[in-house]
Structures are given as structure tokens and as C-alpha cells.
Design a protein that fits this description.
Strand content of chain A: under 5%
Number of helices of chain B: 8
Number of strands of chain A: 0
Helix content of chain A: 55-70%
Number of strands of chain B: 7
Number of helices of chain A: 9
Strand content of chain B: 15-25%
CATH superfamily of chain A: PhyR, sigma-like (SL) domain
Shape of chain A: globular
Number of domains of chain B: 2
Number of domains of chain A: 1
Structural class of chain B: alpha+beta
Distance between the termini of chain A: 45 Å
Radius of gyration of chain A: 17 Å
CATH superfamily of the largest domain in chain B: MucB/RseB, C-terminal domain
Distance between the termini of chain B: 54 Å
CATH architecture of the largest domain in chain B: 2-Layer Sandwich
Largest interface: A-B, 67 and 53 residues
CATH class of chain A: Mainly Alpha
Oligomer: heterodimer
Strand order of the largest sheet of chain B: 1-2-3-4-7-6-5
Chain lengths: ~170, ~260
């Protein structure tokens, strides 16, 4: 179990933090996730891989947390990533670009943000991301497509290479 | 060159993620060369993806905080799987038995001794195989159940005798596949079964130099139990995280099927 779970922990932390935008809360969720994984190790689906299983547990915990917030009113995001996340911005320009791209990521609806994070950042396959999110692969693909369109429009002119002012959506 | 498959939006997303096989990628690149507007859009998507990865990479490089130390969490919540230390103690015991067994085994030869070296060694080998392959999430089996004839062929050749796959479905366990594994007593066939709820059983079978026939014996190995027996020179050991009272009927089932097939 150690061998399988331990290497995934840094990525679980990253996913939780980028999704929740709060480093302390994210680590709490990861801790809950690991505790569940330990106590339910034998309950995991034997045909799925452990990485997908761990991300699924974490994602469900994050969704529960969000639902609790929804009942208690809007959450004020703590802008952890752009400060703590960038431990060493290489260039000032790169730092600004990264801040912009992270801000655009934060403006995505949560379901789209989750898809982008699982696929573009954590390198899950489309099928694995579908299992984590509990939706069909087709839904993952359409969310990914919409998320990328949104990011592109949001960042038009901010991220190299420069984009034309009006991008037509191509079917 | 082109297969004529239409280019889909999914293909374009997979292009951004570099998730296409080489051939499809070449096709997409050819198509993009005549669709510059889409090509520019994808270049932009790829740039954003790279920026996001760069921006979030430092989080995964941070040292893991103490409260996420897996060792400590396991200490607090109990170990999910069998302890290594127990196995190494058993290994030492088996080695000690092997040394004693070389002398004593000869004296006791012929008498059906459940504690004899042959069956004890087989049990240890089966427990070790279970520990390595049953929790393997990536590739627990070399040949999956869908290629069962291939597995039977392979195992039969290596064991130099025909083997078959027992049907444990009455107990709720499905054969998921197997492989040939090395043991200190030659090649062995490892079968893995799964009940669809995360419980796996490993069945190891190999030729027995000693204990050619042995009644079924139960062995408690901490988190797992083993049922081991031998018939006509072929030894079997079934290992799983089940109570002996649950595991034994499954082993009986397998034994009855093997005996019927001989």
C-alpha cells in the first residue's frame, strides 16, 4: 500500500489545492482521503487502479465540502496558489503569466476546473477522469472542450502565442 | 496514408493533451496544416496547458507535511495489509525448517505430514505471490482471463503437465488471469480470482518433489489465510484475506474440480 499510495500524495495535494484554492483546507481533505484509503484499502475496486481510486475519494470529499459551503453561503477564496504555489517564479514575466492563468482557472465553473486539473495537470486519461468524476467520458470531453474555450477567451492576448481577437468556435 | 476517419473535437482535445497515437497525430497535423484557424486555437490551448502545468508544478514538489505521513496515518488507523515483519519471520522459519527438513523430512517421508517442508514451502510461496500480485493495481496478471487458453498452454508447458482453471464462481470469485511465477522449487502457475468487491484470491500450483499427496491444511498468515494440499504430485495453495471457515469451502471446491479433471 505504501508503495502505491505514497507517490500519489504530492499530486493529491496539488489537485485539492488547485480545486479548493485553500492550502490548509486542501491538506485536510488529503488527510481525510488517506485515512479513508487506509481503512478501506480492501474495499477498492480490484479492476481499477489505485491512483484513480484515490482521486475519486478526494474528489468526493471536495464535493461534499463544497456542498456544505453552498448551504452556509458563498466562500471567499483565499488566493493561496498565486502566493504559496509559485515558490520560485523564474522570470517576472513568467510569474505574471502564471498568475493570470491561475486566475482564469479559478474563474472556471468547478466541474470544468476539475476536468482540466485531472487531465492537463495530473495526467489522468479521459476514462480515468470520467471514473473520478462519476460521469461518462463524453461528458468529460465536452467539459474539457468548453473549459479550454473559456480559458482561451479569458486569457486572449495574455498568454503567448497571441490569439486573434475573435476565435470562432469550430465544430 | 490517411485512414479517412473524420477529425472530431475529441481528437483535437487529445492533440492538446498529446494523447493520440503516432499515426492519428500525423493525420491531425496534416489536417491542421490546411485549417490554420483551428491550428492557431490548438497552439493557444497547448500554451495555456503548459502555463498551468508550470504554475502548479511547485505544489507537487513541496515536502509532504507531517500530518500526511502515511506511516503515521497507518499506525493510527491500523495496518491495511499483512505486515512484512511477519513474513520475514515466516521466511526464516521456513528456511530453518528446510535445514531440519533435509534430515528429518527423509525420516518422515511417506507419512502424511501437514507440517512437512514441501507443503510449508508451497504455502509460503503462495503467500508471497499473493502479497506481490494481488494488490497490484496496474498489472496483477500477465495473461488475463480473456486469454485463458493461452495461460493454460503456458502453464502446462512450464509445469510439464496439463493444468486447468478451477471455476470458483459458485463462491462469487471470478478468474481474472494468471502468470507463471518462479519459486525455489521451480516454475509455478499463479491464478488470481476476484469477487468484484476488492477481495482477491491467489491460487499457486506447482510440482511437488515431496508431499506429493497431502490433505488440506490451513495456515494463518496474519492478514491472510492459506489452504494448501497436494494431489498426485501437484501441490496447490489458495491464499486470501478470508477467514479459514470461508476459505476452506472454496479450496474444497477447487480441489474437487482439479481431482475431477485429472
Amino acid at each position: 500500500m505504501m508503495v502505491i499510495v505514497e507517490p500519489v500524495i504530492p499530486r493529491l495535494r496539488r489537485y485539492a489545492r488547485a480545486l479548493m484554492r485553500d492550502a490548509a483546507l486542501a491538506d485536510d481533505l488529503v488527510q481525510d482521503c488517506l485515512e479513508r484509503a487506509i481503512t478501506r484499502w480492501h474495499q477498492r475496486r480490484s479492476d481499477g487502479d489505485a491512483q484513480t481510486w484515490l482521486f475519486t475519494i478526494l474528489h468526493n470529499l471536495a464535493s461534499n465540502q463544497r456542498r456544505q459551503w453552498a448551504r452556509r453561503g458563498p466562500h471567499v477564496p483565499i488566493d493561496e496558489i498565486s502566493q504559496d504555489g509559485l515558490a520560485s517564479p523564474a522570470e517576472q514575466e513568467a510569474g505574471l503569466e502564471q498568475t493570470a492563468v491561475l486566475a482564469a482557472l479559478d474563474r472556471l465553473p468547478e466541474d470544468q476546473r476539475a476536468v482540466v486539473l485531472l487531465i492537463s495537470i495530473e495526467d489522468l486519461s479521459y476514462a480515468e477522469a470520467a471514473r473520478v468524476l462519476g460521469v461518462p467520458v463524453g461528458t468529460v470531453m465536452s467539459r474539457l472542450s468548453r473549459a479550454r474555450q473559456r480559458l482561451r477567451e479569458d486569457l486572449a492576448g495574455q498568454v503567448a502565442p497571441s490569439a486573434p481577437p475573435h476565435l470562432r468556435r469550430i465544430k | 496514408m490517411t485512414t479517412g476517419r473524420p477529425i472530431t473535437e475529441d481528437d483535437l482535445q487529445a492533440y492538446v493533451d498529446d494523447a493520440l497515437d503516432h499515426r492519428r497525430r500525423v493525420e491531425i497535423e496534416q489536417w491542421l496544416s490546411s485549417h490554420p484557424e483551428t491550428a492557431q486555437r490548438l497552439t493557444h490551448d497547448i500554451a495555456i496547458r503548459g502555463q498551468l502545468r508550470a504554475a502548479l508544478a511547485p505544489i507537487a514538489d513541496e515536502p509532504t507535511p507531517a500530518e500526511l505521513n502515511l506511516d503515521r496515518l497507518i499506525e493510527r488507523h491500523g495496518r491495511p495489509i499483512a505486515r512484512r515483519r511477519v513474513w520475514s519471520a515466516q521466511l526464516a522459519a521456513a528456511v530453518a525448517l528446510a535445514i531440519i527438513g533435509t534430515g528429518a523430512g527423509w525420516v518422515l517421508r511417506g507419512a502424511s505430514q501437514p507440517k512437512d517442508y514441501g507443503v510449508v514451502a508451497l504455502t509460503r510461496e503462495a503467500v508471497d505471490s499473493y502479497a506481490v500480485f494481488a494488490p497490484d493495481t496496474g498489472r496483477p496478471v500477465e495473461i488475463s482471463a480473456s486469454d485463458a487458453p493461452q495461460f493454460i498452454d503456458w502453464a502446462s508447458r512450464r509445469l510439464d503437465r496439463p493444468v486447468s482453471i478451477p471455476d470458483l464462481s459458485p463462491s462469487g470469485f471470478t478468474f481474472i488471469g494468471g502468470r507463471v511465477v518462479p519459486t525455489s522449487h521451480g516454475p509455478a502457475a499463479l491464478y488470481l480470482f476476484d469477487n468484484g468487491k476488492g477481495t482477491r484470491l491467489a491460487l499457486l500450483t506447482r510440482n511437488m518433489a515431496r508431499d506429493q499427496n497431502a490433505p488440506m491444511s490451513s495456515s494463518d498468515r496474519g492478514a491472510v489465510n492459506a489452504m494448501t494440499w497436494a494431489v498426485d504430485g501437484l501441490g496447490y495453495s489458495l491464499v486470501g484475506p478470508l477467514k479459514p471457515s470461508t476459505l476452506r469451502p472454496i479450496a474444497n471446491e477447487a480441489r474437487a474440480q482439479f481431482s475431477a479433471s485429472i
